[in-house]
Amino acid sequence: MTYHRFFNFCSFAFLLMILVQTYGSTKMLQEAEDYYRFGLTYLYRGDYDLAIEAFTKAIQLKPDYWEAYDGRGVAYIYKGNFQAAINDFSEAIRLNPNSPRAYANRGFAYLHLGKPENAISDFDQAIKLGMDDGKVYLGRGTAYILKKEYQKAIADLTEAIKRNPKDPDAYVNRGAVYMILKDYEQAIDDFTQAINIDSEFFSAYYNRGKAYLEKKQYKQAIADFTEAIRLKPNDYKIYHDRGIAYLTIGDYDKALDDFNQVIKLKPDDADAYIARSRVYLEKNDFERALADANKAIELTPNEPSTYLNRGEIYERIGNYKQAIVDYTKAIELKPDFDKAYFNRGMLYLKLKEKEKAKSDLRKVLEVSKDPALKAAAEVALKRS
User: Fold this and answer.
1) 355 contact partners, CB below 8 Å, separation of at least 6
2) How crowded is residue 46: how many other Cβ atoms within 10 Å of its Cβ?
3) Which H helix or E strand runs over 289?
4) What would the pLDDT profile of 213-270 be if each residue is shown by its tens digit?
5) How many other CB atoms are found less than 10 A from the CB of residue 151?
6) What is the SS3 assignment for 26?
7) Which of 151, 163, 183, 335 could hold 178 in an S-S bridge, CB 3.0 to 4.6 Å?
8) To which H or E segment does residue 144 belong?
9) What long-range pairs does 207-212 form, CB within 8 A, spacing at least 24?
């Protein structure tokens, strides 16, 4: 699983909070300061276009008004215009190179553009200049996740929690790192802490559900996915994951309902057709199972797992020749596909083609990193 399935980018409450500073008021600068304060008000209200207009007016009246550039940059972040935000924060830094908040804000903008090195550099500078808020450590920790420097990420996110123990984002992001490291107990602890702080935190429920799924605690996973669906009823990924949990525990009707919902929300999702085909297979509805397997291949003709799936269906219904064709296609698309070699090898054994079977099973031992699959291949080789 990739990081974006887990962690949250940081809340921008920090960005707003650090903007509220008084600017040296003089009669000549009063109008510019008024527009600046209007901009802050619009930011708090969520009127980002009006905030940009107000900050722009302040800059026109006072071109070296670095706080106005900083404020406009924050508005651009909320609008999703991250490059414009970076431009404004850079100008704020040029005008006031000792402002930690401008560096921190630019770091957040770089983070959203997927430039973790730039983000880390800016967060480092913000800390060097005296910024002591947990959010800057949260930002840098998140950047380290993007760089796959997970121990550094944990250190920063732990520091963020120490400085702000009521920040659910820090717990969710640290939980995300633990998920990547397969430390599911720690991940569950962090996601639970986030839920204790914010009982409506979608990402915490969804990610904890995924951790329970990995631990094969299916009832807990289903409970969390159900809560996540309550919070985000149109997110197809949750239905898919809950469907997998239902499929695994043998509740095929509920699994079918969930995969139907995935396809309704995202008709081109090949994974949903694969999953639904497995449900139909378990229900002995072979015609529908094959139809879904074919649809998955139609949607993703170069995806090896779709051929593996159809091969398993053909094998189940006794069409061994076509099963071998599909396993072979899966291997052509992915030459180190251990499960395809294993399935083909076992089928060759069933067909009494021992040399071909041995070749495939030896290949499993060569390419697989799955201890259980390798153990099964070794047993099969000894018996062949």
Assistant:
1) none
2) 9
3) helix 286-299
4) 999 999 999 999 999 999 999 999 999 999 999 999 999 999 999 999 999 999 999 9
5) 10
6) coil
7) 183
8) helix 134-146
9) 207/6, 207/172, 207/175, 207/176, 207/179, 208/175, 209/238, 209/241, 209/242, 210/1, 210/5, 210/6, 210/179, 210/241, 211/175, 211/179, 211/184, 211/187, 212/184, 212/188
- The answer to whether the beta carbons of residues 72 and 51 sit under 8 Å apart is yes
The Cα-based distances of 23 to 54, 55, 137, 195 in angstroms read 16, 14, 27, 39
Residue position matching structure tokens 């076992």: 346
Distances (CA, A) of 182 to 4, 175, 193, 269: 16, 10, 18, 26
CA distance 121 to 17: 22
Residue 140's contacts (CB-CB under 8 Å, 6 or more residues apart) are 107, 119, 120, 123, 124, 127, 156
- Closest to 190 in 3D by CA, of 210, 233, 127: 210
Rounded distance, CA 358 to CA 346, Å? 9
CB 344 within 8 A of CB 328: yes
Residue 7, both tokens: 């962690």
Contact 249, 279 (CB under 8 A): no
The amino acid at residue 25 is S
Q: CA 170, CA 133: separation in Å to the nearest integer?
A: 12
Residue 11: other Cβ atoms inside 10 A: 15
Residue type, 282: E
pTM of the model: 0.87
Alpha carbon distances (Å) from 8 to 103, 127, 144, 240, 334: 21, 22, 13, 20, 32
Residues 40-72: tens digit of each pLDDT? 999 999 999 999 999 999 999 999 999 999 999
CB atoms inside a 10 Å sphere around CB 303: 18
Residue tagged 């057709």 (tokens): 273
- 116 Cβ contact partners less than 8 Å away, ≥ 6 residues apart: 110, 143, 144, 146, 147
* Burial 168-198, CB ≥16 within 10 A → b, else e: bbbbbbbbbbbbbeebbebbbbbbebbbebb
